[in-house]
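Why show two proteins at once? Because comparison is the fastest way to build intuition. When a single record is shown, students tend to memorize it. When two are placed side by side, the eye starts asking what differs. So, the first record is below.
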Amino acid sequence: MIFTLHGDLDFHSVVQLYEAEDKELSGEQEAGAVVVDCSRLTYCDSTGISALLKLHSQLSARGGVLCLSAVPAFLDRLFALTGLNQVFCLKTDTEDALNTPRAAPGTVTAGADPTAWAGKEHDR
């Protein structure tokens, strides 16, 4: 299953993501892979990140996996700074994300090498 985000994922628009989740992921069956295509995402606030974390948690609890594809640079940097790149499965494109195998519960499925940031200075 693929969700494609367009424009802003914020306080005002996150309800649409919740509605799509409820519609598409309702039921008691085991969840599979869900890909969130972020290629057209232009903004994401803390409400949007919370919605993605909620989806990740719901899928993990049902044996599924959430992959974010084509994450824009602004969000990728935020994920790296906050450590969320170790929580979310991040893939460069949707096709790659669709081919992501399920991981054992509690394991990191993807993310940047944490040592890649070591010793580098960052603007704040």
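Second record. Ask yourself what differs from the first in the token line.
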Amino acid sequence: MVSLLLVFGIATAVFVGFNIGGSSTGVAFGPAVGSRSVSKLGAATLMTVFAFLGGFTTGKNVIKTMSVDVVPREVYTLEGAAGVLLFVGIALLISNLFGVPASTSMTAVGAIAGLGVATETLRWAVLGEIVVWWLIAPIVAFWICAVIGRYLYPHLAVRFPLDNSDGPLIVFDRSGAVPIPRLGPNTDRMELLGNVLVVVVACYMAFSAGASNVANAVAPLIANNALSMNVGVVLGSVAIGIGAFSIARRTLDTVGNDLTDLPILAALIVEIVSATIITTLSNLGIPASLAVSATMCIVGLGWGRATRTVTLSHVAAEAIRDPSSHGAHSESSVEIGPREVPDIGDPDPNTFTARELFDPSATARVFVLWMLTPSFAAIAAYFVFKYVIGV
């Protein structure tokens, strides 16, 4: 007979997966939706499929780290496993209600760390290694995209003009017995290719999200032997799919529209860099945050593009003269694909301002929630396991 506690544990795992789907879908497909390469419904469908593939392959390495490396397997009693998942789910739900793509891995590791501290079984060396990678990954993501935005993006925009035109991308010719897809009235082949590439790379990001995040929903129950590895992956993937089709709409808007204005080329850059970082870390068994890396890619690309029309010496001089001002960030601008690329420091009339490239207020809101959700999970888990449950 299945115990009520096991039912509760599975329900909390589904709850966590549901919130992961709401958060990670925005991270994976926000740029694609923001550039109008795919609809929200299409994004949810693709997210479900590729998250499962990621969880079933590379994700098993992360499940091992979460289930036996951070704390010993025997710490995961059924009460402990269900409690960890409950804290993770509540923290992620709070983040999703604010429309922010939460750091799922950081939240899950925070809850597990709280359990480990309460039971005096936390393996600090393993946790330290994970935290070091948490610090390295967003810094690398920011600076790779900042360099691309400042030095390469204008040249790529000239050579690969992938801007979206007005009107539908594809229309159907219904004059015959079978509808035939054709290019929209304002669509050329380059634009179609760009949109296809954005969706393909978004699927790569969904794969990365599954590889990193399925573990966060089911690792405690797998460690407890309540679920087998394969059954746990299927359960987590289904729950992620439910979240993708429901509460993901707000995070899709936040990443795709609020943080930055993303043309197709920028979306491709953000997706490729962030997905590669997370896939690499997942192969190493590190539960890294796709939300953090992807958003830092967006901010880095926007900052790099916004500072292109001034020299680095000018940026430094402005910062020294008036640290409280935005300096080059608020007034400088960047080309959006002119026929000739101006040298760095030269003005260009065909530009966006920095605030049109990334919204500092939206970025600040994201950072605050990133810090609060894992902190809440860790502190709540510690006090409950130490003084209430006594695992």
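One difference worth noting in the second protein: Confidence is low (pLDDT under 50) at residues 323-338, 347-357.
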